[in-house]
Amino acid sequence: MMARAPRPRFEVAGIDSLILRLFDSIEESNMPWMLAATERLRASFGAALIDLVPSYTTLLLHYDLEHISASQARELITQAFADLQPASTAGSRCHSLPTWYDRRVGPELPLLAQRSGLSEAEIIRRHSGHDYQVFAIGFAPGFAFMGLVEEALATPRLSTPRKRIAPGSVGIAERQTAVYPGVSPGGWNLLGRSPAKLFDRNIDGYSLLQPGDRVRFEPIDHAEFIRLGGDDSPLETV
Amino acid sequence: MNHSANTGGLRVERSTPFIQLQDAGRFGVRHLGVTQSGALDWISMYWANWLLGNPLGAAVVEITLGNLNLVCEQDACLALAGADLGASLDGQPLAPWCSFSVRQGQLLTFAQPRHGARAYLAAPGGFDAPCVLGSCAGIAREQLGGLQGNGKPLAAGEQLTWHGTGLRQRTMDERLIPVFTPSPRLQLVMGAQIGDFSGQSLFDAFNSAWKIDSRSDRMGMRLLGPQLQCRRSGMVSEGIPLGAVQVPPDGQPIVLLNDRQTIGGYPRLGALTPQAVARLAQCLPGEELHLTPIQQGSAQDAHLRLLNQWRQG
């Protein structure tokens, strides 16, 4: 799709960071622009860039205050977006993530069924019957934000996040889905668990999933989950 | 590990999960979801290193709440800054904000918090530790950094070593010693989402005493007080800067610190200044604080002035 280059809105995020808001909603068509903007900003900021964190619709840009002023940062951003061309997504990688969907490791399955009026089996069929795009990596090492989950499964985050979630847990928040790579706190609705390793210092680039990749969840049973090295201990206690 | 081997440095005799090697933090990898880490009270870390003439972000031991015993296995000059955790050397009290000499065989201990929460111990040239993704800052959750590179906190039997000489000891100007006054006013750079909070919530945010919840760690500190209400819900996740004050649906703010998640989907009032983050790091659960708004430009000017104090001398 050929769309016009986004004009980012600048939002103050902190003393030395800005949110660049490129889009208002999550669309797969955002991705080529997000990837292109990321690359261009890295090049134009060079050593003045401390970190650049892309997400679905935004980029968090953390610059070095001792290197450049706020106005210089804005100038560099404006330049970076001039004549921006969308990045090519041809040849993006595809992954299949085996997933054991079960109440024992997916305590929100009943909640999703109740909210949607669908059976738990139908929830599982719909969640796994769809290719998702990786929109961003964040929250924890190798944690891939994927979407879009169909409307019927969309569920807001828990009002109080859990303090401890087991590695491999597969969750939904609004129309996003993800797998927790390691033990962490979190507020996503959990449906099941995958034995896949998502972040490892021995993986090239450290993270199995990268923005622009395609992912499909493949339902497996408990025996297969264990055979693939999955840990079925119930760690989700609040 | 052979506990009786004398290999120099400091031998850890007793430690806790809240004691970690830290430095200025891990940068340039947040797009992989790897957190920043680094000393929470970076100002005290800077002073501890400055006292020995080290690079300001060199590896230090971040001692949270005390309960640390170290046996000195060589003569050395070390430095201490930050909280008063009842430190002593062979029973003699040791004040923070000074360098001090230790002799082989002496016992360096940290008891409990008397003033502040976190002390920083520096050694000549910085403590030795493997550099993992650009930093030796320890983070157990991500299994990165620390003395062994696997994020594990400091443990009994481990050995802290260094390679500097410590010949450039300095003395702090007393007027520059940070004072941890009770009920501090922490400056918050107002963020773009501040307009999504109700007028009453904004009034409450900046006019209430907030109490630090016991559910607080290096990732974030929860504040207890009036319930804040945001008109926005179901936000798309976006990058989170250091010190961000996010408000989940229960209306109780969480200040996100060095070990925070890189991306999150709760609305935010803004972000504390780095100086305010350092001050917050010295607060204990149950203590009170106030939030006070500041514009980004004024905060930047003040921050650059603060950084200037380490350039002199």
Can you put this structure into words, describing what you see?
Chain A has helices spanning 31-45, 70-81, 109-116, 120-128, 222-227, and strands at 9-14, 17-21, 49-54, 58-63, 94-101, 132-137, 144-147, 162-165, 169-173, 176-179, 184-186, 189-193, 214-219. Chain A is α+β, with helices and mostly antiparallel strands and 238 residues long. Chain A has two domains: 9-81, 2-Layer Sandwich (Gyrase A, domain 2); 94-227, Cyclophilin, CATH 2.40.100.10. Chain A has a seven-stranded mixed beta sheet with strand order 7-6-13-5-12-9-10. In chain A, helix 1 crosses helix 2. The longest helix of chain A has 15 residues, at 31-45. The model of chain A has no long low-confidence stretch (mean pLDDT 92). Chain B is α+β, with helices and mostly antiparallel strands and 313 residues long. Chain B has two domains: 10-176, no CATH class; 185-308, Beta Barrel (Cyclophilin), CATH 2.40.100.10. In chain B, 12% of the residues lie in helices and 29% in strands. A seven-stranded mixed beta barrel of chain B has the order 12-19-16-17-14-13-20. Chain B has a six-stranded antiparallel beta sheet with strand order 7-6-9-4-1-11, with no helix packed on it. The radius of gyration of chain B is 20 Å and the shape is globular. The termini of chain B are far apart. Mean pLDDT of chain B is 94; it is low at 1-5. At the A-B interface, strand 1, strand 3 and strand 4 of A face strand 15, strand 18 and helix 4 of B.
